[in-house]
Amino acid sequence: MVIHRRRGWNSPASAITPQDALLNRRALMSGSAGLLAAAPALAQSGAVPALPPHARNPAFEPGRALTAEREATTYNNFYEFGSHKTIARDAARMPRRPWTLKVDGLVENPREFDIDDLIRLMPIEERVLRLRCVEAWAMTVPWTGFPLAALMNLVKPLGSAKYLAFQTAQLPAVMPGLRQSWYPWPHMEACTIAEAGNAMSFMPVGLYGQPLPPQNGGPVRVLFPWKYGFKSGKSLVRITVQEQRPATFWGTIQPSEYGFWANVNPQVAHPRWSQATERLIGTNERVPTQMWNGYGEFVASLYEGVQGERLFV
Ligand SMILES: Nc1nc2c(c(=O)[nH]1)N[C@H]1C(S)=C(S)[C@@H](COP(=O)(O)O)O[C@H]1N2
Ligand SMILES: [Mo]
User: Fold this and answer.
1) Which ligand sits nearest to residue 80's alpha carbon?
2) pLDDT tens for residues 93-135?
3) For 290-303, how does the pLDDT look when each residue is reduced to its tens digit (9 = 90+)?
4) Which end of the chain offers a freer environment for a tag, N or C, measured as fewer CB atoms within 10 Å?
5) How many CB atoms sit inside 10 A of residue 285's CB?
6) How far is CA 290 from CA 62, 88, 161, 193, 267, in A?
7) CATH label, 13-303, candidates 3.30.1490.190, 3.90.420.10, 3.20.20.150, 3.40.50.300
């Protein structure tokens, strides 16, 4: 940070874009120490770097047309910004750099990752996936990210670990929804250690080839494509590995309607509406909802031993 205050170039500070600052630093310093030191300048400026090159994983063919990018990025649920769908403009005020994700609790290697370090460390790929909201709308979009299992392999859960708790950022200066004090902030969601190890559990950092927009949970969220959308917590700052089942946001507000498992099942109605079909945002076409949101071949075996639990609420 010291170098930031040095007058290494002639233009006034206000005229220096992050890219200029980076290039000037590279000119000023030689060797890898200089290049490494350049990274915090980008972070400090709030600029979000482009995603690294990555390939689409062909294992997840959606069997549906892509939702228009504009629809997927302007019709959102993100209660921190308000309990309506048009939060994108407010969410744009949320700074996505610098950003850290802490992983702690029952792990061998607890760590606080700078988001860009994490992206460098993880195997990044694109997956085109369906997302089914419990409100019976759905979208199909290309997410860039990494398997949650890859992150778990790095921190190494202990033998006593049973659950993961996902905590969303609380930024009162930009999140008007936090003033609705009857909600149990911060937004928490959870999964089991077995679910975290499943290949479908994904950590998106991008959407449509771009860094994940704030309204969709940038810079990093979790995504369980076979569960109702509310399980997929946005803008995460902390993942805690623990032995007890974590309390969750919707499970605390209305446990009879939003259970811990929340796996998609068209035959199990929400207490107030049917789950048999879903509306595709953008086209408003109505299509049948699929068991496990169509991902049964990957995830159904996770639940074979689970007895006496409401798996589909
Ligand atoms: N922190 C947080 N995460 C959240 C929510 C929220 O209100 N706050 N809404 C959930 C719900 S109900 C859905 S359907 C999805 C919507 O994700 P999308 O806006 O990217 O489509 O985000 C989920 N994650
Ligand atoms: Mo949802």
Assistant:
1) 1
2) 999 999 999 999 999 999 999 999 999 999 999 999 999 999 9
3) 999 999 999 999 99
4) N
5) 13
6) 12, 29, 31, 25, 9
7) 3.90.420.10
Among the bound ligands, name the one nearest to the CA of residue 187: 1
**What is the residue with the minimal CA distance to atom 11 of ligand 1?**
230
Confidence band for 41, pLDDT divided at 50, 70 and 90: low
Collapse the DSSP code of 178 into the 3-class scheme (helix H, G, I; strand E, B; otherwise coil) and give the result.
Answer: helix
Quick check: helix, strand or coil at residue 176? helix
Residue nearest atom 6 in ligand 1 by C-alpha distance: 78
Tell me which residue of 120, 11, 96 sits closest to 48, measured CA to CA. 96
Whole-model pTM over 0.90: no
Residue 265 beta carbon below 6 angstroms from any ligand 1 atom: no
Give yes or no for residue 193 CB within 6 A of ligand 1: no
State if residue 229 touches ligand 1 by the CB under 6 angstroms criterion.
yes
**Whose Cα sits closest to atom 20 in ligand 1?**
216
The structural domains of the chain, with segments of one domain joined by +, span: 13-303
